[in-house]
Amino acid sequence: MTRGSRRYLRPDAIARIHRLELRARAVVEGALAGLHKSPFKGQSVEFLQHREYVRGDDLRRVDWKVWGRQDRFTVKEFEEETNLRLTLLVDGSTSMDYRGGAEAVPPRPTKYDAAATLAASLGWLALSHGDAVGCGVFDDRLRASVPARTKRSQLASICEVLEAPRNAGAGDFQRVLRSVAEALPKRGMIVIVSDLLGDRDGIFAGLQLLRTRGHDLAIVHVLDDDEIDFRFEGATRFEGLELPAHIACNPRALREGYLAAVEAFLAEVRRRAAAVRCDYALVRTGEPLDAALVRFLSRRASVAV
Amino acid sequence: MPTLEFAPLFWWGLPLAAAPVLIHLINLLRQRRVKWAAMEFLLASQRRYRTRVLLRQIALLALRTLAVLGLVAALAQPRWRAAGGIAGGDATTHLVILDDSCSMGDTTGAESDLETDTTAGDTRRATAFDRGRRVVERIAADLAATAGRHRLAVAVTSQLATSSDVLPPLLPLLPFTDIAPGTIQTVRDAVGRAAAGDGATGLREACPAMRRLAAAAGGRRVVWLVGDFRSRDWLGSDEPAATLRQLAADGATLRLVDCAGDGPGGNLTLERLEVVGGVPAANVLLPVEVEVRNDGSTPVRDVAIELREDGGGRPGVRIDEIPAGGMVSRRFDVRFTAPGSHTIEAALPGDVLKADDGRQTVIDVVDRVDVLVVDGAPDAASGGGAGSSGDGFYVATALAPGAGAATGLRPRVVPPAALAATDLSRFACLWVLDVERLDAAAVAAIEAYVRAGGGVVFFCGPRTRGDVVNDTLHRSGAGLFPVPLAGAIDLLPDAKAAAQTPDVTVEDHPVVAVLAGQRNPLLDAVRIERFWAIDRGFDAAGHGVRRLLSLRTGQPLVIEKTFGDGLVVAVLTTAAPEWNNWARANPSWVVVLLELEGHLARLRRRAESVTVGEPVTVRLEAGVDEPDVDFLVPPDAALLRQTAVATSGPMLEATLPATAHAGLVEARWRRLDGTERQRSFAVNVDPGEGRLERAGVGRLEAALRGVPFRYDRAADVAATAGDFAGRPLALPLLIVVAALLLLEQLVAYAAGYHPVARRPTA
To answer: ipTM of the assembly?
Structure first.
């Protein structure tokens, strides 16, 4: 395992999520038969095994005969399903370098670290199910990327991309997503891991473009606890990481207005994500990332057809 | 106008009000720096709440500044006065009048209250004046620590009451001085130089000057009267009440501080030491009387009085007992062999008030004392002087019998016509014998002489004309002759009396006291045949006429009346044995005439006794003496030169305007011929200063009814007490500060300056 994979793949997190399946919510085009439902009809499926029903499994997959004989719920699993092409886009703009909770034990990661961890975990999951996974890191443009592959060494390539040096700069989502749309001729699933701080019209215009091209979209919105709760005290000078502005203030005096602005921001993001049928999950850097990943996957599984 | 006053601490603490602003600025410099991603939300919040945040911040700073200001002000003992200037404006002027009269030397009640003499380093009992000095120092110290601006001036009563170029008037011991902690030593030094004097000028006597000084102070005033408040000063006069009432009406706050000590007292005072008769001539016995007063509440026994003559010791006198509140006198004789100024000193054993335990008198002894005898007999008018059988002869012989009996008198017999040209002031007394008529100039000269303290004796005989006497000398009581004369009548024998009744009876009078008592064979032998009767309708007693001798008929024979400062005696019969046999071989004649001379001349001699504070005057002769007179004044014989000025007549007067200490004042001058002249004056304390009875607050309040004042004993006085200090505001200010701090906390909480418990965000 490379240094990047060691850094972003936490064994404890992977142990908790290895049984979860990454499912595409919509019909996607797959080059490989696999676990995923294919948008193309008539292809044969081969029974592989029974496994115990877990909450969230599709009731149509429950083997009622087994239930009739043994009075327990089991789910039938098939050996071949539609292959998934998963593309992970990680925001590498300057704003993702914020690290809050200096006094927290253990220290919280930067937003980029958390985003990269989430991306690597998703990549590993998809690869472990035989899906093709690609990855890119962007700010105002796509800085580093690796195309989707199913090979086992793909995970190391993904981690190298995540570990690649980044140029400080503001993110330009519209430009990046437009280039991604052009670079991905086949439909697939695109997961964007970002703090979404920037030109939101550009973000959702890019997402709309991807959606038009038939991609399944998901946003993992990574924010630091400080950015959500704003629990600063004492005279503080805030200096913009991306914006060339600064404010010297008593944070508590501005907290009420700040929280209102953040709430409006999150509401807008949720509303506009729903408008483009894009899955959305908010992840705080202060919470355990495996829990955040499970929550994300469970949410996708619950809404999957 | 209302006044808010603070202690000087306020001005020192005022810069602390800038502390909240400074702390705010320092916090701005020390603020934490955070690299922040979500600036757009922060900027949005700032845009929305900029005004509210700014206002809350200003409100917080204002509240904190006010709280600090309030705390500093509370610590500075703020006081609110209903009347006065704006804070920091008009000062309060404190005028301290310190009584330095003789009675302030009283050490009553100071058995354990000792004072160290700064010059000698000795320890002695503290006097009332020492306590007064401490009071002044305490006032200065209290004022220095009291809110507001205070000016202090200290004056002693002797300075206030003195008005002359030599001893400057209204010269305060301490001029008006702004009181601060650094000036307390100045006040201490100023009052440390003062001492209780020997004068009788107390607070009562200083009232007029006090009023002027208080008026000069202007503005808001507090007049402190620091003295001993004796009954004799404050209960027997309306002047203190009137002065204090006027001061109060002018807006002054009055503080009376009683420095007299508590205790039994028991002060003895040498009330009097004076020559009580005789002729102050060389080799003549002079009777001197010393009198001691006991102001205590118990009799004093076995009092020894030490006496000194010209600085040398002489046998003293002893008084067996002096009753409580009574006086006892003792007489002793002195004889000086040489002409000149001679001093007699008397001293009592020391008691609570030392200043009144000593007394001295100066006797100007001359070779012979001139007396003028104006003889109305024709042979005297011819210039032959006293004939061998006329009135002048018998009077002159009685006054100067001859070598065997030295009286010290030198009679000069002149006719009435010589009166107008004679300087009467040279003579100890005048004898006018059976003069028919005196011209107007002579009458005026005699009247001026008597008014100035001289004495004159009129003998009335056959040449005397009643109508002339009544018109020129009596003038219906306006003139110097005591009574109007009705006519000369014979004293008829008393046919009813079984035995011979004396024609003359002795009245109660010091001149004839030696003849009073049991029947006196010498006076019984006097036969009066004829005399001048006075008008029956004249009320002699009502006109101040006093009898020395009377006839057996009840009619007056020898009478006396004061005229101006002098005395007039009228003998209503002849001096020569023409209408009586008194002068013929009767020793009582000589005795009565010598006593009479001493009695009449006493007033002129006694005028040379001076009380501390009074002027000393030397009379010079124009054309004989140089006008410059050097006065050597006690206690250190400081020299003060005075130039004599002309008075009425040919005389000049050089006056030392005032004396400040008891002792001998020596006057020296030169005559134009180069010879040096010298004369001494005894300056004694006012014996009244020995009356140490205190008025007390109760009687003071009664005497000063209607005058608002505050009375304190010296040990209890506090300068900050009383209405002038205003209402203390420290506590209300502290409450306001607490309210400000509470409000500050609320605003700070609202502004988000308080830490809050962390709660997980949902």
So the answer is: 0.77
